[in-house]
Please model this.
Amino acid sequence: MTLIGWLQIAVFCALVLALTRPLGGYMTRVFNGERTVLFPLLRPLESALYRLGGIDEKREQHWLTYTVAMLLFHVGGFVILYALMRLQAFLPFNPAGQTAVAPDLSFNTAVSFLTNTNWQNYGGESTMSYLVQMLGLTHQNFLSAATGIALSIALVRGFARASFKTIGNFWVDLTRCTLYVLLPICIVFALFLVWQGIPQTLGPSVEATTLEGAKQTIAVGPVASQVAIKMFGTNGGGFFNANAAHPFENPTALSNLLQMVAIFAIGAALTNVFGRMVGNERQGFAILAAMAVLFVAGGAVTYWAEASGTPVLHSLGLAGGNMEGKEVRFGIVASALFAVVTTAASCGAVNAMHDAFTALGGMIPLINMQLGEIIVGGVGAGLYGMLIFVVITMFVAGLMVGRTPEYAGKKIEAKEMKMAMLAILCLPLMILGWTAIAVVFPPAAAATGNAGPHGFSEILYAYTSQTANNGSAFAGLSANTPFYNLSGGIAMLVGRFFVIIPAMAIAGSLAAKKAVPASAGTFPTTGGLFIGLLIGVILIVGGLTFFPALALGPVVEHLAMQANTLF
Amino acid sequence: MDDSKLRKRMPVSTLFDLKIAAPAIAQAFVKLDPRTLVKNPVIFVLEAVTVLTTFLLVRDLVWGGHDLGFTFQIVLWLWFTVLFANFAEAVAEGRGRAQAETLRRARTETRAKRLLMPDNHEVFEGVAASDLRPGDLVVCEAGDLIPSDGEIIEGIASVNEAAVTGESAPVIRESGGDRSAVTGGTTVISDRIVVRITAGEGSSFLDRMIALVEGAERQKTPNEIALNILLIGLTIIFVFATATIPSFATYAGGAIPVVVLVALFVTLIPTTIGALLSAIGIAGMDRLVRFNVLALSGRSVEAAGDVDTLLLDKTGTVTFGNRMASEIIPVPGVSEHEAAEAALLASDADETAEGRSIVALMQEKYGVQRRTPPEAAKFIEFSAATRLSGVDLGARKLRKGAVDAVLRFAHEQAGRDLPEPPAFRAAVERIARSGGTPLGLVENDRLLGVIHLKDVVKSDIRQRFAELRRMGIKTVMITGDNPVTAAAIASEAGVDDFIAEATPEDKLHYIRNEQAHGRLIAMCGDGTNDAPALAQADVGVAMQSGTQAAREAGNMIDLDSNPTKLIEIVEIGKQLLMTRGSLTTFSIANDVAKYFAIIPAMFAAVYPPLDTLNIMRLASPQSAILSAVIFNALVIVALIPLALKGVKYRPVGAAALLRRNLLIYGLGGILVPFAGIKLIDLLVNALHLV
Model:
């Protein structure tokens, strides 16, 4: 570990924090329907869209209506995406002449992009046509991100409102998010990426003659536009198979730094939106602080693990850190940080192979996802996931100070607890359940790239990543099989919607409640004690759930490696 | 509140009291019935897996298997865990039952004297109390037990209510007004009353009280339901965590015996809080009963912990019941002694509390001697028409009373308009401004001075209110006084707000308004006109001495009729929630150590390197697992006293309270099992149990 390394981490954190308040303020105004800078430019377009869709923007929805609208929207999105992949051979913008995508892979991929997971059981440049990448995948990158943000805003409204029957209008939130937030940011960011050297073209791949005289096909395409949203929307689905490790997806140290900032930017800003909407910005900062502590701790462990290397490498004369699977242009710290950022948020873009990390270095990304990706998290999803943990934390804290638990002025009662527990249950059910099946199902177990605990980690990582809607791959696992495609698809669907539906039920139930004024008997949720308790609850709940699995994967691998046993 | 009296009446039974422990042990077995256990999901699941392992043990015994001794011990301790959980509940119920016994003794088969004709109060027949119907009229004479709850429609009597309140001093009950309700099981000591029965058999106050303390009518409170959901959720999580282990083990090339999996599962699920949850609830109600407060529902006890605003009647709560004289201000030209002597004479025969306080003040503060009044003295009693009282000593007519009435009297005596001395007016105004009541004093047509009557604020009340403020509770004083007087008393007592010239409608309106802002209100009252407000309040404490209407409107009844007890009620409510929260935290925090004990033991054969996680250095895999299971069972018993006594509440603000409880039950919950399991492991190995 070096000073420069720590400085890189510090600069990254400073950039994210600097963006939090301005972006949070802007998004608050957008979702409250107030005037913003872009209003004159985009308002006519927004109104036109409402007229086209027959939407009355003044009319708000009950939580059920809101949720049903969201679900229907996803059914439509799924059909279009699935059809595009199956029919890509007959559609334009297919210079490489890609053939139809297999049904199970199409299912997995459609679900994957719909749920903001972007798990990819395929190599983009060798499977998908430009049309699918742009109209299907990039388009879903926007919409799945906008959906997540809209849902989190609806939940925030639940906390902010009192005695309300409605929690907003899904179509309006979705439109505003896409038009005022995602599109403008991504256009600017895509231009920046083009400047850094990322291609943006509809032309076919380029043929090059190498120095040795061999012919090389260099894949290009509309990359910059997809990369911009893949980062800001925490989608993570790369244009190329190598994702952000590919020089055309992440060419420079600067592009790497700003891509990481982009992953966290909206998620961090949403905590500020929460604070502003509930009328106390410090509430938002407290949540962000809890996220920050978990993030920095995870980052430090991964950086330490990777920088220390392994005794096995050392005995081979490879002094220093573990550079296996890392890009030389990024080095250890930028790779370790990227891995933590991408799994803390539900991005899933990777600039190094997590499979090649040390056991402990690879365990942190795994834990980040298993905690439910609430460390900043996916855009929107991180906030509503975190708020569910807050509900549970405040329930226990409230009892311990002798009051019916409340948070942000809302009483937490049986209904909220029921929904919060439902949301928390789906994670272990999918992750542990599918892993348990896969490790004893011979064809699935055979798909691992390594034996022993490491192979176990590969499967565990695959289901963790999909259930948590992360999409990053541990690599090593050959997951493009009907079993993995189907089971993974189910994991992604459950992991997304069985958190969303309870979260929306909580939103509706909270919005209908009266606000309880704070008193000296109310436990303050802006201080260090709250932050500490929240972190404690997250770690204990997550830790207790996944301790056996982690013990049998990365932990035992690490302990065995100390004893020079490899798998 | 006199603590010593309470203890005498309701002895705090301990866990080791054989009278309670012995039947509780029997009850623990009775409660194994899955139909009753299903109400407690965590313990139900525990019993289910215990039965499963018992079957496996029997199978192994019949067909032969490995490690029978180990399996047998695990199964045995699993059964102990279930029994300990049942025992905890049984002990809590047993304590309630012991109290109910005391009450039941009062409800011996009583004979009642039922009137044959409603109009003739002399002719009655003897019937069994159980045959009485609401609406019947009964006669109760000195020495009779009042057969059931009712309302006095004729007469006045002193009644010994010790059977219900534990207070041996008799109280006066009379028809009409706010003291007309009587309770079944209490004894008439003197005089004769006619009572209209209001409660049917089985629904009298005493019946309800017995049912409540026995826990028979216990329903889960909203908070308990929410907590149960959390516990069920955690249980399901641990189902996932343990049920997937066999498959993981198969992948690693090993196999885990079912009994070991069950051991891990049982130690992980929140059995500690699951076992103690209902005991905590029962004990909470019980604590109230020992404070001589009867909560008619568990919901109201919980609500008491959430109260934001307390509405308190000024009289009797903030101040002593009566106003008292504090000084006399003579007009210029009249000596202090002369005025004091006149005041004493004018009040000599005045038996009201105010009159007596004037006599006492003049003697103590002004040194006036009290002499036997002359024969000729003619006392004038207070009347609402003149609003004056005093004495005529021949031509000397001394009067005291409301200022305008005194002025009118002087004016009449003089037969002409009298200039009011400016000093007199100034004194009157000064007293009124300070919140006191000025009482004019006049001799014939000569004004002598003004007596200052003031409400005396109870000495410790200011401190109690400060305590409440630290708890985050706002106090509001209700008074019929004018705003000036009310403001003065409010500031002296340190209440946060007051409602002056309050009518019953004002109270109701205030409560609704506070509730509309999301606050929870507690109030106490005794009069019939308090009933609507008592019903509207989230916590309505009716005084036992109050009317039937008030007692029915409230959701708690204070048997001591002491309004300041609202404060204790709030504390008990908070204590109830805190005990649940703290033990939940403790229970979950325990899991960390149990993982470290069991996981390395479980995979010792497959992955020897995992032994690094055996940070307690437990001797062998089997002893580690057994020790964790034993600890898990014993901790329930160890915590029963805490569950019954409750976690101590301190009015120190929420953050400080949480920090303290987190330190004890959170951090403690993580550390204690490490030590406990290690200790048990040493013992298990010393005794060669595995």
In short: The CA atoms of residues 578 and 647 of chain B lie 6 Å apart. The longest helix of chain B spans residues 68-106. Confidence is low (pLDDT under 50) at residues 1-13 of chain B. Chain B has 25 helices and 21 strands.
